[in-house]
Design brief:
The chain has about 190 residues and is of the alpha+beta class. The protein has helices spanning about 5-15, 20-65, 100-110, 130-140, 155-165, and strands at about 70-75, 85-95, 115-120, 120-125, 150, 180-190.
Length: about 190
């Protein structure tokens, strides 16, 4: 530290009422300690969330399947309320970044109507003429644009679920970015 700066700090410290600097330092320590406690709690929360996800998505679905359990109840214990746990199918689908194979599969198999072309507006896949007019207009007026084809994740997830549950058909999950599994969900028991 520069001598002039150190001298200025010391002269400032000497002007503070007795004990004031120590009170400020004590409050600074409190701030530092709280910051570390919050960081620790966030790390603990992240770790507990990982454990909860593993239990609900892996461990419990495996045990429920192994013992042919569809649902299970937990009685109230101490301050903990009663809960019902139910094993059920889990579906989630998000097209991968390189989604062209998935998009082409959807088109080739008659599901191209789910695909959206995104500029600033969304157009149905079967709107080739309108898409070309918009593209031509943007190019004619020298406007920069990005064109992307996509399927919203919730639409794709519902499609995967319908194909498997109602049509007994499993589409190519890998190219559609889909995950299918089991999950055990837990809800508080309703008081009757």
């Amino acid at each position: 530290m520069k001598p002039d700066l150190l001298k200025a700090i010391k002269s400032h410290e000497q002007k503070l009422p007795e004990g004031a600097l120590e009170a400020v330092r004590a409050m600074c320590r409190t701030m530092r300690d709280l910051q570390h406690e919050i960081k620790d709690l966030e790390e603990q929360q992240a770790e507990k969330q990982k454990r909860l996800t593993k239990l609900s998505m892996n461990d419990l679905p495996d045990l429920f399947a192994e013992h042919k359990i569809k649902s299970l109840g937990l009685d109230a214990e101490g301050n903990m309320p009663a809960y019902d746990l139910t094993a059920q199918p889990y579906y989630h689908a998000v097209l991968p970044e390189e989604s062209d194979p998935g998009l082409r599969w959807l088109e080739a198999n008659g599901h191209g109507d789910m695909i959206k072309r995104v500029y600033t507006v969304k157009l149905q896949m079967d709107s080739e003429e309108q898409a070309e007019e918009l593209r031509s207009f943007l190019e004619e007026h020298d406007l920069a644009f990005d064109e992307k084809e996509t399927v919203p994740w919730n639409t794709l997830t519902a499609f995967i679920k319908e194909q498997i549950e109602k049509r007994h058909n499993t589409p190519p999950l890998d190219i559609l970015g889909a995950f299918v599994g089991r999950v055990v969900k837990m809800k508080p028991k309703r008081n009757e």
